[in-house]
Amino acid sequence: MTGGEQLAQYLMSGLTTGSIYALVALGFCLIHKATHIVNFAQGDFLSLGGLMMYSLLHWAGLPAPLAFVLAVAAVALVGAALERLAIRPAKSRDAMVLIFITVAASMFMRGIFKEVWGKQALAMPPLSPDVALKFLGATFTPQNLWVLGITLAAIALLSFFFRATLTGKAMRAVAANPRAAALMGIDTDRMVLYSFALAGALGGLAGVIITPITTLNYQVGVMMGLKGFASAVLGGYGSFTGAIAGGLALGLLESLATGVVSSAYKDLIAFVILLAVLFVRPGGLLGRAQQVRV
Amino acid sequence: MSRGQVFYLQMGCLGLAVLLAPLFMSNPYYLNVLNVVALNVIAVTGLNLLIGFAGAVSLGHAAFIGLGAYLSGMLSSIWGWPPLAAALAAAVLAALVALVIGLPTLRLEGNYLVMATLGFNLIVGIIMLQADQYTGGPSGLSGIEPVRLLGMTFSDDQSFYWLAWAVALLGLALARNLAASRVGRGLRALHDSPLAAAAVGVPTANYKVRVFVLSAVYASISGSLYAHYFGIITPRTFDIFRSVELVTMCLVGGMGSLWGGFIGAAFLTPLPQALHVFDQYKDVFYGGLLMVLLIREPEGLVGAWRRLRPRFGPKATGRPA
Amino acid sequence: MDDILAVENLSLSFGGLQALDGVSFSAPRGLVTAIIGPNGAGKTSAINCMSGVYRPQGGRVMLDGRQASGAPQHVLARRGLTRTFQNLQVFANLSVLENVMVGLHAVTKSGFLGAMFRLPGHRAEERAIRERALEMLDFIGLAELSGQPAGQLSYGDRKRVELARALVGRPKLVLLDEPVAGLNPAETEEMGSILLKVRGTGVSLLLVEHDMALVMRVSDKVVVLHFGRKIAEGTPHEIQNHPEVIATYLGGREEPINGVAEAAHA
Ligand SMILES: Nc1ncnc2c1ncn2[C@@H]1O[C@H](COP(=O)(O)OP(=O)(O)OP(=O)(O)O)[C@@H](O)[C@H]1O
Ligand SMILES: [Mg+2]
Fold first, then answer.
1. At residue C40, does pLDDT exceed 60?
2. Phi, psi of C164 (to 5 degrees)
3. Number of helices and strands (H, E) in chain C?
4. Domain ranges, ordered by start, for chain A
5. pLDDT at A140 over 90
6. What Rg, from alpha-carbon coordinates, does chain C have?
7. What is the DSSP string of B79-137?
């Protein structure tokens, strides 16, 4: 392979994982906007998306498109349940307590996944049969294209939802100023619920499309969740555009760096980048430092 | 009685209980469990300083325990350092690592520390597995020397019991001294209002970083003792699950209350031993317990006790006991 | 004249909103200076710039002849500048005595190790801290409440705790953001007397206040802000008769000054 082909290869795989990081980062962003907490179960949404897809295909024998929709919907439901059963009834409104409820929920969910699907890796089939495609010297599979296409479509849909629909606008209003939104007659509780459901759907979607490429097991989402978080921080935590940019940037950086560092240590790269960015630009690459109001 | 006197009275009672407990232990296995309780108390006390004072949580404390265990183990078994010197060097390194993680994350609003420490825990896990020429990889590091001090060797359950509990009680006393001091007041103040604390001269970011470093040192010491006690360590002991377990101990007992941390450790450490099927379901158990507790009783056992105590007091009326 | 504080050409904006627009004034040493102005005039923003909470985008603040703007809050506290807050910021979980003891943080030294191992220097300092804080509680009239958690006090008592916390370290200059807002007439009267007593001890005060009777009673100098600009400066008597100030305050009822400020606050 020539240097150029090598580069094209890195770019392709970087964009693919970057898309996934972006989807996960968007999920973090949604919940942050609605509640100002970090949802540690975001990565488990991804695992669940893959696991549900696997079961719907193999255990229920459903056709792929139907399984796809149902898997994403199921994770959205779990997201909503997390809000309804664990976050809303909490006695304390302290952000730290709420965050640790999501930590606990994450562990709890992982324990259940392990019981239901076991510890072993599961073989997840791609959305369309694997053939080797070549473009500018990079070799890839149709699944890479599915990932890129579906991510793009999801982002477009999300952007349409927030700009053009009443519910989307109401959610933005709640994020900007919950008190004012409530005064305007917006049901803020419901919008928070929708945010969790939407975050669940994004996580589930990421899981469905990436697990044929990576692998599928009960804890595949843990690392992805962390890297999605790192992406959100890179983009200036809480900004949608930043989340997408941060995800792609991290995916590409990681992929290029594996050319230099041994792949055993590949997972270190994201965190080294994260800490480095926090050192020099605490507000993230795109973010601005926040100012307190007294 | 001042609050300081109450604390030292409680400490005295605990010390007495520690002295007497071995008399009632027919089975050396129980002593082993108590030793692990002591090691957890050390780590949890440090973590509690961080949670209660800096208002920040670390999900990577198992990694600091692991750092203490592995460094101490490697220095003594590969390079022949005396265990105590090895433990000291490990603590210094854990402090430096905590500094590097804490500096960029703790001056920010929000919970960047939680993620950074979680990521750190994963990284340390990867290194323990991959750098197998030093760490022994998945099968771990074995043949670690026991601690020797003043001609004594702390290798068996009984002798290690004295060492571990002496360190645990010392750790509690030091933490409590800090809490009752100028620095401790500054830290508690910054938990209530960072702005007002800074306005009276508390260097808020600096203090948070220092507490984080201190808590990492507590964890590292706990890990070093662990390594020299068991003689063998494996990466699994220091995974993220362990970090969550430590946080659970803090929260079950009562966030930021030193006795709460002690109670949490004493209550949750023997539990896996008591429940046989526990190992397989520990994620579900710990996750579920932590979730229910945080939803219903965010102040932990100590908080519940404070809330309920008036009902047991002399003025309580109603149903006969 | 000897100034403890000089503000030169201070500018601060939030997005498009110019909260301070080239404001200059000074506060004479040992005296009481008041800043007045309608809601949203930029008074709190000015205090935040002086105390290191905000970094002004233009101009500078000089404290006792040395540059203060740009330095973080805790450093300014060590240089003898403390403050109170418009929206009360007592340490709710600390006792009243502990709140005031924390006020001595800037003027005491002992560190982590000294505290953990209770070294002799640390213990002597702890005793001194406690004694000084108790003295302060006597001065401010809170001695009986010293053991109470500050979060459980009445509003007026919390305001006094804040003042005691700011004064206990014998600062050179104290910035007070609306010290009598929300107090009843009797408490306001008492607070006025306390402020005059403090002035008598040589501490310089700079206060922001809407209560004109109090301003006239305690201050030696008054600065008037309006929409981020200084529109007048002088003795209380001069300010009372200043045409632009009168126009602002009398005209302010009809003009949308209050409305604008409220909209910006929402
Ligand atoms: N952190 C902030 N972000 C955005 N705008 C702000 C912020 N702080 C203050 N402002 C705006 O700046 C202007 C000046 O506010 P400031 O609080 O200084 O007024 P003030 O004179 O103290 O008013 P008041 O008498 O109501 O306390 C107002 O329009 C206010 O809404
Ligand atoms: Mg104000």
1. yes
2. -60, -40
3. 11, 10
4. 18-222
5. no
6. 19
7. S---HHHHHHHHHHHHHHHHHHHHHHHHTSSSSHHHHHHHHHHHHHHHHHHH-HHHH-G
Measure Cα distances from A244 to A22, A251, A257 in Å. 5, 11, 20
What share of chain A in percent tops pLDDT 70? 95
pLDDT at A233 over 80: yes
Q: Which of A111, A229, A274 sits opposite B287 (nearest CB)?
A: A111
pLDDT for the residue B42 = 96
Average pLDDT, chain C: 89
* Pairwise CA distance, residues C166 & A27, whole Å: 44
Query: In A, which residues are within 8 Å of B123 by CB distance?
Result: 267-268, 271
What's at A96, amino acid-wise? M
d(CA C155, CA C141): 15
Indicate the pTM of the whole model.
Answer: 0.85
Q: Taking residues B224-248, what's their average pLDDT?
A: 90
Do C108 and C129 touch, CB atoms closer than 8 A?
A: yes
C123-135 pLDDT, tens digit each = 999 999 999 999 9
- The beta strands (E) that lie in C84-156 are given as none
Confidence band, pLDDT 50/70/90 cuts, at residue C259:
very low
Name the pairing type of β-strands C32-36 and C17-28.
unpaired
| pLDDT at residue A1 tops 50 | yes
Name every chain C residue with its beta carbon within 8 A of the beta carbon of B208.
none
- Where is pLDDT greater, at B56 or B197? B197
Read off the amino acid at residue A86.
A
Q: Which residues of B touch C (CB under 8 A)?
A: 174-175, 177-178, 180-186, 188-189, 191-193, 195-204, 210, 214
Supply the pLDDT for residue B312.
52
Using the structure block, give the residue that is written with the tokens 């047991």: B312
d(CA C105, CA A157): 54
Residue A4 pLDDT class (50, 70, 90 cuts): confident
C-beta of residue A47 within 8 angstroms of C-beta of residue A218? yes
Give C62's strand partners. C6, C67
C-alpha A204/C-alpha A225 separation (Å) is 12
Neighbours of C144 (CB within 10 A): 9
Rg (CA), chain A: 19
The secondary structure element, H or E, covering residue C7 is: strand C3-14
Residue A288 pLDDT grade (very low, low, confident, very high; cuts 50, 70, 90): low
Average pLDDT over residues A97-102: 89
Q: What pLDDT is recorded for position B2?
A: 66
**Highest mean pLDDT out of A269-278, B43-52, B280-289:** B43-52
φ/ψ of A283, rounded to 5, equals -85, 5
Number of the ligand closest to the Cα of C48: 1
DSSP state letters, B218-253: HHHHHHHHHHHHHS-B-GGGGSHHHHHHHHHHHHHH
Surface of A (205-234) touching B: CB under 8 A: 222-223, 226, 229-230, 233
* Cα(C170)–Cα(C166) distance, integer angstroms: 8
C-alpha to C-alpha distance for C111 and A127, rounded to whole angstroms = 62
Beta carbons within 8 Å of C263's beta carbon, 6+ residues apart: none
- Helix ranges, chain C (H): 43-51, 73-78, 96-102, 112-116, 120-140, 155-167, 185-200, 212-218, 236-240, 243-251, 257-265
Q: Assess whether the C-beta atom of C14 lies below 6 angstroms from ligand 1.
A: yes
Task: Name the CATH topology of B3-308.
Answer: ABC transporter involved in vitamin B12 uptake, BtuC (1.10.3470)
Residue with tokens 């750790």: B171
> In which residue are the tokens 């579920």 written?
B288
Domain boundaries of chain B, sorted by first residue: 3-308
Confidence of residue C199 (pLDDT cuts 50, 70, 90): very high
Closest by CA to B219, choosing from B259, B157, B266, B171, is B171
Joined together, the tokens standing for residue A172 give 């933005």
Average pLDDT in chain A: 89
Q: Other CB atoms closer than 10 Å to residue A284's CB: what's the count?
A: 23
